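Progress narrative, work stream C.
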Amino acid sequence: MKSSDTPDALIQDRLRRLGLYGLLASFHEIADKPWLGELLGLEEAERKRRSLARRVRTARLGVFKSIADFDWSWPSRVDRAAIDELFNLGFLEEGANAVLVGPNGVGKSMILKNLAHHALVRGNTVRFTTASDMLADLAAQDSAAALARHLRRVTMPRLLCIDEVGYLSYSNRYADLLFEVVTRRYEAGKSILVSTNKAFADWPSVFPHAACTVTLVDRLVHRAEIIEIEGESYRLKEAKERAALRTSKGPVKKPRVTGSSPSIRASE
């Protein structure tokens, strides 16, 4: 056994990582105390909890349904094995991307948010945003310094999730900004998860006058897993089911309100 692997050395390493230098300096006096291991466990658990809470706030996931509630039988086409593989987070180690392609309402955002949350729980930094929110925020910066600062916000996290690419058409300025984000993360070897309702062949209609679209797509799909989901909108299905349920119950009858009988009042 290496000296660095002895029980005392491992405890000292935990103290050092936690920054508990007072205890570390007095280690030989407290090494045999029964409370030391419990104290370290409590401190590590609390720091892990606070770190996760901070990263969840920074990620801006909002409210979402668990992937356990995803109805895999609803899409007419979905590669569940490929999506399950993404949850292993191997693509993060490779610096690879993943793109979910499909029409509105088939669960792309739900899958993206669950992947983001899973990455957070596994200790990674994450940022989740819609394409419109991210690009509008970057375009609104009125100085080069402010733009550089906001670009760092989307470049620094281990995982960047961009939802709803293709739902709107964007100007050349927005196209250039998305190109900058993709390029910076591509060069840094950091992963991007994207959801889009447009096939890549239709992306020129999303950025109708941009010269960088072909290069943008090329860098995004290089080392990328592209997963297509086909089917009708699940939200529309739920809306139809609610409407059918209301119809089956019939119109809601208002309760009749009656006053006291005149004959009764007269006899009082």
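Work stream C, second folded protein:
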Amino acid sequence: MLLTGGSGMVGRNFRAHPGVAGFDLLAPTRGQLDLLDAAGTRAFLREHRPDIVVHAAGRVGGIQANIAAPVAFLLDNLDMGRNLLQAASEAGVPRVINLGSSCMYPRGHDEPLREEQLFSGDLEPTNEGYAIAKIAVARLGEYLGREHPGWRCRTLVPCNLYGPHDRFDEASSHLVPAILHKLHRAVVEGRDVVEIWGDGSARREFMYAGDLADLLVRAIERFDELPDCMNVGIGTDHSVLDYYVAGAQVVGYRGRFSFDTTRPVGMARKLVDVARLRAFGWSAAVDLGAGLRMTYEHYLREHAPRGT
């Protein structure tokens, strides 16, 4: 099995899953396989010819990072995905699991987002470049399957993720790791006010990365049972303020919150429908409190400034 993005959060949590011990796993570094190099990617796939590819590589980041570099988020993710999928089809690799993102869904929906709603409306402007790339790669997987009989690509669409090996900084990270980092700094620096972008009412669904790793193991083992596209989430969401309050309990922050309503917050709500996932027979095991504790413990070991 070839895993791309093996050094990222998803890849590292996947590699730590006990079920991976049963796979003959190839997880090259970027120096060994640069997905932005089309010719090099084709050569790598021809040489190794894995039985299955899990595509977890990508340029990722939070709202600030997406707003600052939409061209890079679009082109890098598009080029990585198309180079890999085309190389896999040309090399005769029969199965690909492609990781999409709930950012692929149109904005303006308050109900849980169903797979049928992909490609059906305007995207959220704050991460549009990233979303366009993910949509294009998912569609390319469908097209290649039509043109290459016996070649199959399945796209999994995870909700927002958090967990060990995430990025913990306010400029480029997603919501949950940014919250833990901000709250930790507030405690260390003795501050009693932490700022929240927006009014705290925007709702998000976050799943522990170790749970996605478990789903990936099951998806590999039962690849033939996967639908062409399937959401992966927990089926419930919380407000941004809820995440700050839960993070404060874990970190030990006892101050108050302020709200900057001039800041961008993205979609008002982003919750995926998990009916197909439940029909597949899988559900997440780690609740928010436990997931935040394990993530914060990792942060303290690996990311917190020394002496804090």
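The mean pLDDT is 94. No further action is required on this item.
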